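User: Fold this; tokens only.

Assistant: Input:
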Amino acid sequence: MKKMLAASAVCLLFGPAVLAQEWIQYASKADLFAVNFPSEPKTQDISFTSEFGITLPGHVYTSDQGRSHYSVTAVDYADAEKIHTARAQQCRANGGQGDACQNDWRGDVQGSMIFAASKFIKRDAKVNFFGWSVVDQIEGLRIQLTNTDSSRTFAEIHRHGTRLYVLEATVPKGAPAPGLFQQSLMFIDEEGKAIRYRSIYTTGYSEAWKFPAPAPPRTGPPPAAPPPPAK
């Protein structure tokens, strides 16, 4: 379900001290993504409650380095339509009518990135940035926070296929932004190959809205990562 793809040596600055740490490029064939972690992450099964109150399966991948914390949460919305439809049908069978028995599956899927972002916005933290982002032409959202202890949190949210992905890195005061983690995100196919599209991949709502969205044509793999800085 998961494997280590490669290893690269990097140097990270933590205040006046320099810490040489070997990072790994980690790939999850279970959730079809790859990202750099400071060590092989711990994986935990979770039950995720969506905006409209259904329970969906997911995994959380976590890895720590000193006072810096890194995680990827992947939630699978594949059964969202089935769960919502069954709930609406049961509502009507119980005598419910109208909006009380509305099937909210499209809104639940389409709003999943905003819902995930709202959890960061509601934290006791200062929002330094909130905006649109793209990784290999796959659209998403980016959020940066300053926490009450002056640590900083960097979040990236995407939806690809049937999955919602939430990347989160928190680094202590004075530490550099976690670029090695943030900028390494890739989406992979079932064969473990990196995916990059020729045009923007989006599941935007329209009259012809489909889930999962039909994928645009792919290009070749993304450019190779630059070499680590010289010591």
